[in-house]
Amino acid sequence: MQSWRRRKSLWLALSASWLLLVLLGGFSLLRLALPPRPRPGAPQGWPRWLDAELLQSFSQAGELPEDAASPQAPHGGSCNWGACFDTSKCRGDGLKVFVYPASGPISETHHRILASIEGSRFHTFSPAGACLLLLLSLDAQTGECSSMPLQWNRGRNHLVLRLHPAPCPKTFQLGQAMVAEASPTVDSFRPGFDVALPFLPEAHPLRGGAPGQLQQHSPQPGIALLALEEERGGWRTADTGSSACPWDARCEQDSGPGQTQRGETLPNATFCLISGHRPEAASRFLQALQVLAALQEMSPARVLALRQQTQFLWDAYFSSVEKVIHTTLEVIQDRIFGTSAHPSLLWNSPPGALLALSTFSTSPQDFPFYHLQQGSRPEGRFSALIWVGPPGQPPLKLIQAVAGSQHCAQILVLWSNERPLPSSWPETAMPLTVIDGHRKVSDRFFPYSTIRTDAILSLDARSSLSTSEVDFAFVVWQSFPERMVGFLTSSHFWDEAHGGWGYTAERTNEFSMVLTTAAFYHRYYHTLFTHSLPKALRTLADEAPTCVDVLMNFLVAAVTKRPPIKVPYGKQRQEAAPLASGGPGPRPKPQAPAPNCVNQIAAAFGHMPLLSSRLRLDPVLFKDPVSVQRKKYRSLEKP
Amino acid sequence: MSCASGPGGGLRHPLRCREPWDEECEKEAVCVIMCASVKYNIRGPALIPRMKTKHRIYYITLFSIVLLGLIATGMFQFWPHSIESSNDWNVEKRSVRDVPVVRLPADSPIPERGDLSCRMHTCFDVYRCGFNPKNKIKVYIYALKKYVDDFGVPVSNTISREYNELLTAISDSDYYTDDINRACLFVPSIDVLNQNTLRIKETAQALAQLSRWDRGTNHLLFNMLPGGPPDYNTALDVPRDRALLAGGGFSTWTYRQGYDVSIPVYSPLSAEVDLPEKGPGPRRYFLISSQVGLHPEYREDLEALQVKHGESVLVLDKCTNLSEGGLSIRKRCHKHQVFDYPQVLQEATFCVVLRGARLGQAILSDVLQAGCVPVVIADSYILPFSEVLDWKRASVVVPEEKMSDVYSILQSIPQRQIEEMQRQARWFWEAYFQSIKAIALATLQIINDRIYPYAAISYEEWNDPPAVKWGSVSNPLFLPLIPPQSQGFTAIVLTYDRVESLFRVITEVSKVPSLSKLLVVWNNQNKNPPEDSLWPKIRVPLKVVRTAENKLSNRFFPYDEIETEAVLAIDDDIIMLTSDELQFGYEVWREFPDRLVGYPGRLHLWDHEMNKWKYESEWTNEVSMVLTGAAFYHKYFNYLYTYKMPGDIKNWVDAHMNCEDIAMNFLVANVTGKAVIKVTPRKKFKCPECTAIDGLSLDQTHMVERSECINKFASVFGTMPLKVVEHRADPVLYKDDFPEKLKSFPNIGSL
Hints:
The complex is a heterodimer.
Chain A: H1 2-33, H2 81-84, E1 97-99, H3 108-118, E2 132-136, E3 158-162, E4 178-182, E5 195-197, E6 224-229, E7 235-238, E8 269-273, H4 281-289, H5 291-297, H6 300-318, H7 321-337, H8 344-348, H9 371-374, E9 382-388, H10 396-403, E10 408-415, E11 432-436, E12 455-460, H11 467-479, E13 485-486, E14 489-495, E15 500-504, E16 513-514, E17 518-522, H12 524-532, H13 535-543, H14 547-560, E18 565-566, H15 595-605, E19 615-619
Parallel strand pairs in A: 1-2, 2-3, 3-4, 4-5, 6-8, 9-10, 9-12, 10-11, 13-18
Antiparallel strand pairs in A: 6-7, 12-17, 13-17, 14-15, 14-16
Helix pairs in contact in A: 14-15
Chain B: H1 9-12, H2 14-17, H3 22-42, H4 53-92, E1 101-103, H5 120-123, E2 139-141, E3 146-148, H6 161-172, E4 185-187, H7 200-208, E5 220-223, E6 244-247, E7 261-262, H8 269-272, E8 285-289, H9 296-309, E9 313-315, E10 331-334, E11 337-340, E12 348-354, H10 363-369, E13 373-377, E14 396-397, H11 406-411, H12 415-433, H13 436-451, H14 459-463, H15 466-471, E15 489-495, H16 499-509, E16 515-522, E17 542-546, E18 566-571, H17 579-591, E19 597-598, E20 601-607, E21 612-616, E22 625-626, E23 630-634, H18 636-643, H19 649-656, H20 660-672, E24 677-679, H21 694-697, H22 700-717, E25 727-731
Parallel strand pairs in B: 1-3, 2-4, 5-6, 6-7, 8-9, 8-12, 12-13, 13-14, 15-16, 15-18, 16-17, 19-24, 24-25
Antiparallel strand pairs in B: 10-11, 18-23, 19-23, 20-21, 20-22
Enzyme class (chain A): transferase
InterPro entries (chain A): Exostosin (IPR004263), Exostosin_GT47 (IPR040911), GT64_dom (IPR015338), Nucleotide-diphossugar_trans (IPR029044)
Protein name (chain A): Exostosin-like 1
């Protein structure tokens, strides 16, 4: 029985195994027998040809190098830069612009724009010497239309500047003239030839202009993500709360009292949707493209970058009519310059192409602003530039102190007084160059070709500094190569009583300027001072020498949008609060410039760029209760 | 759907399961289990020894047969698939000669000529691309066909090697889809790379009968050699209606800005010749011209330059006296001197790329490969990929009429700029010219960038060579902005259970004028924070955040409650900082909003004996870190710390319960490229019950641990980002001989 049962179970097992075998085998056979069906959804891709090796090349050997030549350049109906602009007129001085004088009476705006171009470095009074002839067509109010100018020559080398949509019918053919106007149409715009301008409101400031309204880098938590421009100039906000924009337009919140009118305030939102000509299309546009969903996916890093870039672009190129015009001219100049035009980085990062002159250099690392982006560092050496004005004592002690610095590369003496040059100079290891100046104060900031380092230590012959003061200040400058690093400071303030700006050199808890009688800064500021400031301002500095400090501080502050840096100055403590001269030994004497100097310069800049700082950078162990032996700059602490 | 993603099957049979048949996978799993049980039954050890011998033999034979059968079946289960897939392979591995033939009737429709006014918003249907989370367009490739006319004469060569390569590259890329209904861009497999090999009308008819042609909307054609004799149009002459054209040799007249894509003319030498990169710097020749088919007028101009400038200019031509003709493409001659081409290009600083009959020249690619700066003399030529590439950085464009001035124009370029251009030229070739694949992918990326502009690749990514990308820092807070004082700061106190000390800190901090909110991060999960009534009453809102886990990184979490940009991180035992010191710290932060502004400073040093970094807390003249036991910083860095910290640093810090402050110092220095600002003189950070900061730092093992952190982080970052400075920030009149009463921050440094 047992064996039967055993056998039975064995047979059972056997038959089960057979069944399995047949089943599985059958499947396999079935699969072999049936042709494989195409797999749904399987990626097929471009086939790998068996004979891909045998395929012929798209061009026969020899066809490429020997393509027959014809001297006839391809041509077309409209203008491009090469065909319609004659750069041979621009050789030498680069872009020189002649502006056609207005024929009849002109508006105040027109007058001031003319003045602003005339004050710029591009301007020339001679149409023959100009490489660009500018035709202003901007009097929207007066309805004055310009007629065809004299040197028209089919519009060659002409720029027609239209700040507001042309009210005039086209009185003459534009021909080969470049057109700079707002909102050009794709069909008429010639890329690389015409210039597209922003649409400017009538009341756009002529100069300076309000800085951007952004007060913080990152968006305020909880504000609307998107605002839609509406008909009648209102704004609707779409909230961050609505996850993705639903298709039934629910992403728009009920337009309640939160809706604001254009002109008063812009909506408080991270993004604003501006939809060209038809505001009512905005909501449909939003649905179709799911703008909101795309915006919500944007990383905080990108939002942060976009916010800041809008502000930079506004400040650098859009905030005043003058900036818009200068930007247009700069764009054209870049086309003329070709390889020595602004590199893209200079256009697109602070301080912008209007303040980073391509005539100085086309290598970003030559400027003080781009070391981070370039992964470079400012040079480890400086040049001391000592200005010797009246009475004309050779600054022997000062030269010794400066030459003692390990970072000093050269000493330049700018001899700017009536006395004859001394025949002998102190023996130093430093190369010493004497420049005979033109007795003008603004000479102090001339970009002398003999200055071979990025850093300049600007000094007055009457200044007194110790070697360790120089050393420490220079090390600080290396951390802030775009700022001025100085020892003595002064401040500006708003004078309610006089309704204007005031100036004080008294010691206070804050400062906004450093005196250039002893300060480190980048040599680029000499170029900027000499070539970008309006002539009127430099003349002002020459006439009122104490203003030159203020002017230089204005310039650097306008470029960096940062206050200068103060470092400790040992001598200061010996003196009474208001720095008075006349003590033993010659001392730099910061005379208070006439207060209208600050006001005049502020008016010329169009705004007040100076910023106040409440800090001073000291050595890490400055006056700490620790052995003086451990301190690197111990002589800074000597009483 | 693939099995690999499902639980179980995927890992066991990775090869097998990559197949897309779901049910197959399940079957396989069942089989394995059954086999196992059957085997166990058959070979059960208790069974066989007790049987009679003859039976045993009989059974064993039977079982072996069954077993063999099973094994064979099992093998079969595996084998047929490989046989099958190789069958599939064979199906794909067809011959180009066997592709289906399509007869084009002579009267089949011809598309309109190209529409010159086409722009993306008029001729391209973006709605086909839709919104997709990856922001990638989907590209479909039509199957290869052979087109013949009514008489059976082929319309063109079926496909060239390069076009086949191009389509393979697209097919292998992320853009590819085989689902024609989901595609946003269609690429015909009709090869129009070289117009000379085409019958124009018939090719156009072939395009028009494509299944989704629809006037060419969203179709992309690749053409490198446009036009034909005698007047050589600068764009493909095949009527193509609204189709996008990726063309080599566009002029400003034919190029539809923002619609067409200008591509290089591929040089076959790129694949044939290996020119290793040559470092930038002066080379033997200043200027070389190596083109052979030059118009005599141009050759005269160039030879005049050679006469004028002697050795530094080399004008080459075809070799006429070479015996073997086959190699002549790779040789150039000047008088009787023979040079290897393209190697000779590496001997020159500048290389002339002159217009021929066509504007686009393959030599441009050779020149870039040689790291020679191309001098492009071809009026109105749209340089390849000029929509995204900044050619000013890699080339010199000279108008044809100024050809005689070329030498002086080039000489006016500073040496440093020339070297930049040489590097840039080589980089352009490596990234966008060196293969058909590179050309195809760059073209698709440009179109992709237009369709998803908000996800487009930046100027820097397109143009900066890898070396620049590595070395440069793009500060996320680059706008020079001084935040208004009125905004104030949010203090974040990380605490565990030291309630008494915490309350003292809260009371002290609340005295700081610019404090706008106080956030307590309660990191103790076992104990509830004190009742509301017990907390100190302060003038600003106080919020308590309870955390899920006791982790140090909780201190740097970007809490929604932080409404100000400035954050003060402060430990629950820092009671020694005066209100003046904290207020001053905040004002310093306003001037340096992109930096860490803190009180106790620390330094990293290179230990020459141990050959690694060392942590230093002694009285030094330098600072490279500040402790975050008391530091101001921008709240954006909380986001970076929590979500963008490189490598495993965040987990490492949480696991070791240490060094979160060093990690923050590394992070900020790395992303901004700037040093910390230490404020106010050194203080002894000691308090009765505290162990943090100085108290703990003195501990020897603690110092070793901190050094270890620095070494660990430096290896994760791949660099040492910390910057050493010798300054700290004090109030303007600090320690000056000036009446204390008149100072803004008199109570600084005193304890």
